[in-house]
Amino acid sequence: MKLNMMRKLITIGITGTAMAASMAASAVDYKHVAVAPEQMEQQRLPSAQSKGLFSHSTMLPITAASLSDMGRKGQSFEQKIYLDGPMDSPIVMLSPDAGQWFMSVTNPMGKVVFDELASAHKALPVDEVAVGSQSFAGKQLQLQNPMAGEWRVKLTRKGGALNTKATKKDVLGYLLYKGDTAFQARSYLDNNFTTQGSDVNVVASMMDTTQDRGDRAAMLRKEALLGSIDSAVALVKSPSGERYSITLNDEGINGDKVAGDGQFGAKMPTGEVGVYTNQVQISGKHISGKQFTRTVTDIYPVAEQTFDFADKTAQLNIVNGTSAVVSVPVKQLADADRVHMSAEIWGTNAEGKLESAAWAGGIVAAGDNLELKFDTRWLTRQGLQAPYSLKSVRLQNADNNVPMAQANDLPLKVNGKIAQSKAATKAISKDMLMGKAPAKAATERGTGSKLLLVHGYCSGQAWLEGHFSGADEFQNYKQSITHDTFAQRVDSFGDQYNSYGIVAHSQGGAAALTLYSRYWSGLDNAGSGRLIQSVGTPYQGTALAGNLAALGNVFGAGCGYNTDLTYSGATNWLATVPSWAKAKVNYYTTSFETKWWRYDYCHLATDLFLDDPEDGTTEKWSGQLSGASNRGHTTGQCHTSGMRDRQQTRDTSRNSSMNGYAAR
After folding, report:
1. Residues 503 and 615 occupy one common structural domain
2. What whole-number distance in Å separates Cα of residue 194 and Cα of residue 303?
3. Any bridge partners for residue 131, and if so which?
4. Counting C-beta atoms within 10 Å of the first and last residue's C-beta, which end of the chain has fewer, N or C?
């Protein structure tokens, strides 16, 4: 697809006069960026195991095969559940026909503590249970300080036969409950490069997080607890709908790397291009003997490998002055118009040793050679000479950021003469960081300056324009799109203005940062002030991404998969964002208000998936953006409406402050 045609297609869903303006716009202008050696580490992909999820809860699928037929009385689902935590625990049932299901709960002593069908108890209301920015029909029962042990939940379904089209494996709903928050499951995929046919294993373990809950870095350093897991199974659904049940082992075989280390593993399917859902179900015992269950639900994208490196020397072609192009020969393996390429450029110092000059990256057009603009002053500022080389040359899918190929070291041949400065300086100019804006970019934009108000993932209106002056609201409601596509849609909308700053909610913050770091836009023309301000943005992902995907499969609703919002997807994306672009972000986080006498949460259901403090979608730790300006954390505010505390975008004081500080 030609880029100018792509620009037109991405405007679908944008309303108002901006539509006509954006339809007339030409191809997007890629921004090729660089980072100084001191910040280069942030541009490297972290280890795959650092992307894992933690879970202190269980989300069990209710399938047609698990039901017992009661004849005219309907169907029933009975399940043993193990409550092992010292705190209150909700039991949540989610199903499209939740009103036809009735719950009874029996404690470990054999006493029925709740029964919707008994006259002594009231029926549970059917609520719209909010999970992130989406909601699903369900029922919730709150247990006060339940005793540890084996409980029994029975769900009786009335209202006629099941849909005859449902297969035995089809999921009809989910049963959710909470475990000990200090005893968590951990699961991750062990390969960053999830391309079609690649060797990817899932790894699962249990760990004691008594002192570290909410401290992501500390939790990642935890060792697996030995002897705690009795069984672990991965339930996988492929992009085409095929289902797999894969047993994990700790015997050093079939995807498990080391026997007896407490980390269970198994090989995962990667045969189809698209998004897989994966739920790891774990059962076992605490050291004390208490039984437990945990589930970890995630999604992972498998991308077609569209490019690989050719066995040829890379070139540094001097254009004029300090302008050059890094040209990397590749083999194109499948149709693609573009790819994100990044590389570290190294040269030889006066002592004859290789030294890093800069990291460079950006989206490049397809071809036999992938070409990345580069400023040779990165070499001369440190007095580096030949021989030169490229290290950690990485190709990533430009849309969903899946790493596809990496070359650790490529020789770099210079064609032309590198301009030597008479007075070498260590200073770094703006042109060295992002090059110069193409002349045509300015002429294709509208006039005037605005503050753009941007919503988030699968969202309706997030901001009230009355809280801001000189503002215009971007409206692309109820969409699930990648950060890159989101950024391009904001760019198209913003083309009606010459310059703008952005105030964003949730995923809108990540989209704004993507726009600034990958494309020339009105952000580059903005005046003084804070360029990008965000509230509640999960810059490092959210644990809800996989759970939302699983629920969407059942409800046939929601906004669909979004792998950019997973921990793993967010990490892949952040490796493409230069540190100086992050420095242009000012962000805020919030969480629920805590009272000592009650069980606190933004929403009962999302509390099962997230570590405190959190806002119902974004955990405080995952809302942090390294190198950006943290403008503070506020309690008593939740992510969206419909949660327990106030909606975070309705804080008039903070909105007034953001309005006053905003660049336009």
Report:
1. yes
2. 7
3. 134
4. N
